[in-house]
Amino acid sequence: MSTTLESRLAALRGSAPPRPMDARTLAALAANPGCGRRALLDAAGVDKGAVAEHLGRPAPFGQSQFSIVRGNAFEARVKADGCAELLRLLCERLGLPAPDEAALPDLSAVGPAGRAERTRQALEEATAAGGWSLLDHPMLRLEVAGSAVHLEPDAVVVRPDGRWTVVEIKSFPILDGCADPAKVGAAARQSAVYVLALRALAERIGRGEPEHTVVLVCPKDFSNLPTCAAVDVRKQLSVTVRQLTRLTRVEDIVSELPEGTTFDLALDDDRRTPRRPVEELAAAVDAVPAAYAPDCLSVCELAFHCRARAHECGAVEALGRGVRGELGALASVDEVLAAAAAGLGGAWQADGEGSAPAEHVSGGGCGVGGGTDAHGYAEDGGDFGGGDFGGGDFSGGDRRDFGDDAVTWRLREAARLRAEALAGTAAGGRA
Amino acid sequence: MSLIATLARMEALREGRARPLATVRHRHLSERPMVFVPLTTAGEAGAPLGALFGTDREEPTLLVVPQPRDRDLRFAFLAQLAQGMLPYLEGYADDVDVEVRKGKDPETGEPVEVERELCRDAPQLLVPNGSGVRYVRLLGRSMRFRRTAEEAPDEPYPVPSRVPLLGRWMTHFGERALTPGSCLLVSMTDLLSRHWASGQSGLEDQHLGALLAWLDPPPGVHGSEAALRAETARDERGLLECPPAGPATDPAFDNKLLAPAITRYDAGLSGAERAVRDLVGSQLRPTWDHVWRGLDLLRELPPGDRVAARWEGDRWSYTGHRDRLRAGEPPQPKRDDAVTAAAKLVRRETDQVRLDAHEALDDPLVMAERRLAGEAFAGEVVAVEMAYSEGRSPRPRPLVSVSTHDRPHVEPGTRVFRRLAGKAQEAQVAAAEPGLVVVRLVNQMGRGRVPAEGTVPEPGDVVCLTAFEHDPRPAAPLPPPEETPWTHGGPPGEAAMGASAPDPHTAEDYL
Amino acid sequence: MTAPVGDPSAEAARVTEEILHDTLHSPRRGVVVDSPPGAGKSTLVVRAARELAAAGEKPMVVAQTNSQVDDLVKRLAKEDPRLPIGRLHGSDSPPDPALSELPSVVLSSSVGDLAGREVVIATAAKWAFVKDVPAWRHAIVDEAYQMRSDALLKVAGLFERALFVGDPGQLDPFTVVGADQWAGLSYDPSASAVVTLLAHNPELPQHRLPVSWRLPASAARLVSDAFYPYTPFRAGTGHEDRRLSFAAAGDGSAHDRVLDLAAESGWGLLELPERRTVRTDPEAVAAVATLVRRLLDRGGRTLSEKGTAALTADRIAVGTAHRDQAAAVRSALAGLGVAGVTVDTANRLQGQEYDVTVVLHPLSGRPDATAFHLETGRLCVLASRHRHACVVVSRAGVERLLDEHPSTEPVQLGVTVKFPDGWEANHAVLAHLNERRVRYRP
Description:
Chain B is α+β, with helices and mostly antiparallel strands.
């Protein structure tokens, strides 16, 4: 990361201490990779939850203390007696005899960097020793867009043959061999980040073989007895690798922000009360283009703010990503309704407000929708075919057929058929 | 989502309240459904915290587990649930019709008449949302392999009698709910979102409070505002004014109120049990009322013509489970064998096709979606030309020209169907051009050379033809499980029988 | 992955002999053959059927669609006009009328009528209704990867042993209802028949036809790398063996330039400006139609190991993802006076072969990628139908679309991860096409 970018990001964050990226935030890069807002705020280490709270649209996330207690108790149980149960399970899964003993190196050190260094030493020694070792909460380091991110898997097991296996302990159950696929998917994406960090480390120290199959340890059925499952994370690895390389686009996003943009909450002397005028903060947030979709509601702290903005703009995505498929270039609800209204002989114009065809509200202006329009179609030469666009009739202002007529026809038909059916005049159905 | 449904959502968004997606009710509603609103304990698998249930809107039964980690308390809860629910679930078992079907004598293979009982009605369980349906499955799974003291005297933690039986019923209902269009166990969010389009996404429709806010917003309040209130408004204690419809609880409720109350209960403080009970009840009651409110709205819609025919499938399902219980069969295994899995899949596919066809035939608004998708077309008959099949005894094969605005995906040779006196009349597309489709009728015209009266449309008639069949043909039979072929592992052996072994226990009171 | 060496014909012949040997003599109950695009799958099926018949085994043959069955009957009858063939069919799905012209073929909807035939061929769906007959000693199951596990369950009782042949890279079978509850089970009824078969019978001999006789050298490597990363194959012909040329020089238009590029390199991408469009994007549809028109107008000629030939309409196909796109292209072609060109969706183009294909990219103009559009098999089918060249028409921005595709797939325990992933395969194909790109602004 260039120092200018680093200082811009620091300025964006303002006086608040940075929230370091972790495996969850890195895995989340793949959840909505089109969203510049999330990418930028995460890269800058901004506390999105605090920003959302101050904007008056906090995300209703929270964790019940019951599940925290349960999760901790389960992990403690799994790791009891020098992780004996964990090793037994693991060997059973791998079809190997359980070792009589395994090394449990002490990884304590000062600060994340110190712990990461201690982990490196321990992995190097364990791999060289050629026996079983279990690293409890090791600290891994991964370079992301030029800066170091620290990651803490639940455990890493070193096998005598030098292979390293990531172990994740989760408190959702494996019931009759099945687990909640959404939760397993999230665990797989998170584990893929650990595998990536281990690969980087193995390359650095020139030994060790991180496996792309991770081990998930969960309670079995309705008991608190652990069981485990192997999860192949190759797909998640390739997606994460690609998304990490795309993080450089943060630089482009930053460069397009107005000078002086910051998400600083201007905390009062009590270090708790934000003094930043809400409109100002909202303007700063909205200056970064977002790609809101309803799926965001369960994963991003800013989602309720972005949803409100999407509604204000009438962005069609607010009704779900899938609705865009049949709407061509129409990006707003008003546009769609106006196009459809023509199918009703303009009947809609009469009732209700806001039915006049809206100006083209593209995503960009509202900060939602993420690049709906043709852009970036630079006429760069150099490819086959050079810079000229064959065909010859390359005259800008012509009316072009983008299929909008087809969209409009279908919308009108949809509106006509719907109105007929509701009025009870349609053929078919109960005819 | 179809374009027509998208349009309906956009209309709803503009008008500030939900818009219809159906003109009739496509699901059976019992006259006396049982509403079941469960809550579960965060972080534990299948540890119920409490439930409201019953058939009387004004007098639900409240059951609460004051310390969900206490096995005895959980079992007591399940016993009371069984006591409260089983009479309802079993209450339709003895009122039967006897159907006579053609069958085969198992010994001789000769065709014989077989009498089969079919329950005249069946129970219906209504839960708030999709997670509620999954929770019924989970509860069923957690109960059906338990042992009672009578069954297994050595069982260290026997459950009260009737608990495994409730587990088997819940498993059956949970499994049946995966069949498209089935109604033994349904969620209110599914029922409502099938019939109305809100101005939000399908994902947000999973929130029963928000969905009802769109259907029934307070006067002068826009649906999106009402829905936002339902999702996020909190009282002065920081609790959601509209508690989640479960089975998960609001973490703020857990941390601020429930956890301290359970701690007081653990300390044996007087009145502590009552306090937990009131707290859990306060989280359940709004959802209970929402489910009944949803039911009111649904009952305003007239039922579709084919809803009763599909409910008969549910009655068969109910009767079949009754018969398996009476025959003393073991509980449903943890995982299906190869033949059972294939049979369920094929059955669900057939039922999906049938449901899609039925809904379209029952409801012009659904048919409109199929027409827009090019799977059906409607229009006026502009010409009828008599023609005959070749062969020794020519049969009528009239050519009917239909003028239509629709743009069906048909080409010469495509089979199409129209409804005629309760049956499907088949035709073949003879020619298709924009605005005009010519079809050749091929059946349902009687036995003679002249078509029977009323079997051929006349110019001026409005007809609707579908490119999908009205009743899907039955699927090919599967072998019995004991004849599972080598490609699928052979007959399920002893290993599969062990699939109904009880779950392991630990001495601790954690689950 | 080692570079293929040796004579492809000899290599393919050796593998075929091994397959036939296992089919006739293996003590195992099944033989599985993976066949990449154009590797001679139908030839193998026909040959296996004849050899089994010659050995007095009277095999039954299972295919998946009626047109596949009809094609097999025709091929078999052509190869061996004296072989008595039975074509079993459904009572309301009559076979191709051309079959009734074949003297060696008996058609019937009842298996009893076909008892004496040396080979009996039907769809899996029809076989599933056959019962109360003695088991066949041998079966050949064609397109086994497109067959669903539950379909195999219904017919497997009819035979003692079988040769399973199919292309693992094409479209997977699917269901419209939920099947999650069986995910991870070895006999998941919604999975492919071969997956179930091998899960229960891992010891079965497995073979792979190693040479694609259809794909030119320019395509085999890309298709192999992108869609068959762990089971590579090679082209049966060299770069010099196939040539596409035009009598008329290009007119300088983007269309002609991309055709020249494709003639030279086997691939071409005609890229339209980025725009979110409907599925039936009229500009893209028009571009596809124009490309076809120009292919014909410019007097295309193909040179291959089969000799030289004029590139006629019946040797050209247009592939799309959706039916309405195919319909739009057909009407655009009609508007340009073009007849006889096949225009169809990936599903229906499976198993077909042409000299030149023009493909409307499944992600062109879309607002987002869906599982349907990302399905590996869809792109694989579209990119592997041609003997000479494939021209893709697409809006710009597909790469960004792929990059912005949310990756939040649920993961089922116990389900073997299928490779390649559609997202990655799409990136790979696009990277290759980008080097053969002509931009076009209508």
